[in-house]
Amino acid sequence: MEVGLNRLIRPALRGFSALIAGFLVFAGLAITSPAMADEPTSDFSISGTLLNGDTPLENVNITVTDNDKFTQTVKSDATGAWNVYVPAETKYTVRLDTASLPAGVKLAPDSPAEQNVDLTGMGFVAVLYTFGSGVIEEQSIWSQLIVRIFSGLNFGLLLAIAAIGISLIYGTTGLSNFAHGEMVTFGALMMWVMYSVLQLNIIVAALFAILIVTASGFVQDQFIWKPLRKRRLGVNQIMIVSIGFSIVARYIMLLIFGGDTKDVSGGGNPVTLGPIMTTDVALYSMGISLAALLGVAFFLTRTRLGKATRAVSDNPSLAAATGIDVERIIRIVWLVSAALTGLAGVLYGLQFQANWELGFSILLLLFAAVTLGGLGTAMGATVGALIIGLVVEISPLVIANELKYAVALIILIVILIFRPQGVLGKKQRIG
């Protein structure tokens, strides 16, 4: 028993040590960067309270910027109140993210989303927004449905490029990687470091963030999963290691980056498409996500490496017998999966900000998407993610917003009752 435990624990500890060392390198970068130092106290602030009549508006995004160096985004609390401490008595722009307003609520015609504030000689100012002149201005059910479908497609595409990584890894190794969510978090936080802290060009920052997450995928496979595969440990044992690794990685990121939410892009510029109020960042994100999914489909169906990956996923032993280097394919799968997950983290951070629990909060939805689409099928993960995204965003039209994730999981259970192999999965004979 002791020998068996050593065979399981030692390689995992070596991998944990290597990854902890990598995280600490970035911790050193974060600690020495001026933009990440402790914020000085300030006597200057901008605040407000978002009320729709007598109803507080919670979780609405407010961005305050001086269009130079200072940008901060906050959310209104349960009473509708929000407050931003600013570094100097100067002019600021306050922007309300209309896309974050509750369904059926919108600004009154005489209340602009952006307001200019001059703190010179004042030190404090309260910003007023009015919503339908104090009365909830209901949109038609069809307008709300269009808005929700758009949001569901946006969220589903983000889930899809992250879920494909889980599906590819499961298909080639049989591992359900519970640390996958932390790779999404790592991508979002690296984008924050590169773009907001080091102030690199947004494209260069995104490429560096994706490259770093891809390197972390290589390190994981080299020092944790490959040694465990060589020792022929069962998939359940390796899955337990992945759960432990996810906890370690998550709290290391909490230690390094803190528990506050990081604003990566300031929310982007508002764009109106009929009843849909969105941002240019969301539109670019959807286009990039769609291009990435098409790239994965081309890779799996039209390239030799992609066909070899599908062969390993179908039958590793038979693939090895035909001359395919299974370990090499698994290594490539880890790199591709990590790159896609890093891209998901970057895009998620740009749209919705980043914090240490980002990936953990959507991990269950990622596994639901993979299971719903069919375990081990990349395109199935895409279909499952789009279904989950649409259900999550459309369900608040008829139920409480807090239950939207639960509804997605209920839909998963119902579909699997009638089609256990998933939407695109194949029936398999057992025994």
Question: Please, could you describe this protein's structure?
Answer:
By secondary structure, this protein is an alpha+beta fold. It has two domains: 304 residues, Orthogonal Bundle (ABC transporter involved in vitamin B12 uptake, BtuC), CATH 1.10.3470; 94 residues, Sandwich (Immunoglobulin-like), CATH 2.60.40. Helix content is 58%, strand content 11%. The chain has a four-stranded antiparallel sheet, with no helix packed on it. The protein has a three-stranded mixed sheet with strand order 6-1-9, with no helix packed on it. Helix 4 packs antiparallel against helix 9, helix 6 packs antiparallel against helix 9 and helix 7 packs across helix 9. It is globular and about 75 Å long. The N terminus is likely disordered.
